Amino acid sequence: MGIRQGALLERLRSSLFFVPMLFVALFAALGLVMTEVDSLFDGATDLPFVLTSTVDSARELLSVVAGATVTVAGIAFSVSLLVIQQASSQFSPRVVHSLFRDPFNRRVMGLAVGTFTYCLMVLRAVRGPLEEGGEPVIPNLSVGVAVVLGVAAILAIVAFIDHNAHSLEVSQILARVTDGTVDQIRRTWPERGARPDLAGEDRLPAGPGHRILFATSGWLQQLSTEGLLDLVPDGGTVRLDTTVGRYAVEGTPLCTVWPVPDDLEAADDHAEGATQTGAVRTMQQDPSYGIRQLADVALTALSPGVNDPTTAQEAIFHLAAVLREVLVRDLPPSVEVDERGRRLLRPEEHTHETLIELAFDEIRRTAASLPTVCTYLLEALHLLRGAVLDVGRPELAAHLRCQADLVLAGAEHADLLAADRDVVRAAHERRFGEPGPAPT
User: Fold this and answer.
1) How far apart are CA 231 and CA 70, in angstroms?
2) DSSP summary character for residue 197
3) Distance CA 241, CA 243 (A)
């Protein structure tokens, strides 16, 4: 799938309009089909008494169902916006994107507006004896289906409210972000040892290259490796001067290519077509955004206005779950070489160390004066240290140990009672022993 198609699919997945629009079209077609079926059976007048109607009762019933379901749709949209606003202020604006992607909410909205549309289509087919044609037309089957859809829509709104009440639980929000991030990592990052050894391939060519600049500003959401390599001939080199997940500022470097292309303007246009920028950051090629979201929830919980260390604890351990998946895998290669000898260099890509820092640096600084949260951080770092030692990565264990020492150093220098410092010291010593030298 191309990056343009991928960007379109991502927008559709997070759109509150697309699925209800499909339901409207589907139920409008259903209304037309059902009225045709009724006409074939001449209104199905031999149905049981409970399923037959008069002209007036059919119109009244269809009007009631249509009015009720459009009210349900209004409630559904209002509740969704309330949930989004609450999650944004209570947890982090960055977690809102995952709420937009919730398929259950969009289906309930679709059922409500679809039922309303169905009732309108059937209502137009009802005719009285004094109207055109002189014969009454009562689509009994269609009216019966409208009753079923109306009851389904009312039950759906009850399930919708229950679903949204639970979706505001912090554990649900954190689990949604964690599961999405871990799934993306498993899809796009190689197992340990599966990455090809391209040592020495990161050298830069001799001579000047052509620097290509961003034509627009926005978050770099996706890029096409094949599209960027098509900028150069066989044996050529492309160095990416940014990475997915960063904000692209118009006129700043996107990449540099060697040799210099013959048609500079065509090369610039081709590079623009090989990248996708947008107004929002996404996880499509950027699992580090999931780490950013979880860290933001912890930071919001530790802010003076919220002051919720227990939510910070949950966010910290969800971060540990994501980082464990990161640290036992190889990162995507910083050098890619295709069969034609063309190289794509990615010097700005995240490393394991920078992802550990992204997860914990801001939290430990904010939590320095909170001994309970410091203890949570030490426990998460201890668990991760054990995981990387189990897969034979002592260099990452050393980096996690440095983070633990920084947690202790922050508590030592914070304005804490001696007893509270002793709590952090004891937690550190139990998990890591004596602190090592201060990291540089």
Assistant:
1) 53
2) -
3) 7
Element (H, E) at 335: strand 335-337
- Of residues 365 and 306, more confidence is placed in 365
Are the C-beta atoms of 345 and 331 separated by less than 8 Å?
A: no
Q: Is the confidence at residue 207, as pLDDT, over 80?
A: yes
Contacts of 432 (CB under 8 A, 6+ apart): 378, 381, 382, 385, 401, 404, 405
Q: What is the DSSP letter of 237?
A: E
Residues 6 or more apart whose CB falls under 8 angstroms from that of 219 comprise: 245, 246, 247, 248, 277, 278, 279, 280, 281, 282
Model pTM above 0.70: yes
The pLDDT, as a whole number, for residue 423 is 93
* 371 phi/psi in degrees, rounded to 5: -60, -35
Overall average pLDDT of the 303-324 stretch: 91
The two three-digit tokens of residue 26, written as one number: 């589907």
The rounded distance, in Å, linking the Cα atoms of 223 and 220 is 8
Query: 56: exposed, middle or buried (C-beta count within 10 Å: 0-12, 13-18, 19+)?
Result: exposed
Q: Which residues contact 231 (CB under 8 A, 6 or more apart)?
A: 212, 238, 255, 257, 261, 267, 270, 271, 274
Q: Is 134 left (phi over 0), alpha (psi -120 to 50) or beta?
A: left
How far is Cα 47 from Cα 36, in angstroms, rounded to an integer?
Answer: 17
Mind listing the pLDDT tens digit for each residue in 16-50? 788 889 999 999 999 999 888 887 776 455 555 44
Question: Whole-angstrom Cα distance, residue 240 to residue 195?
Answer: 19
Q: CA-CA distances (angstroms) from residue 333 to 60, 156, 200, 257, 429? A: 66, 47, 13, 19, 37
262-272 burial: b if 16+ Cβ within 10 Å, else e: eeeeebbebbb
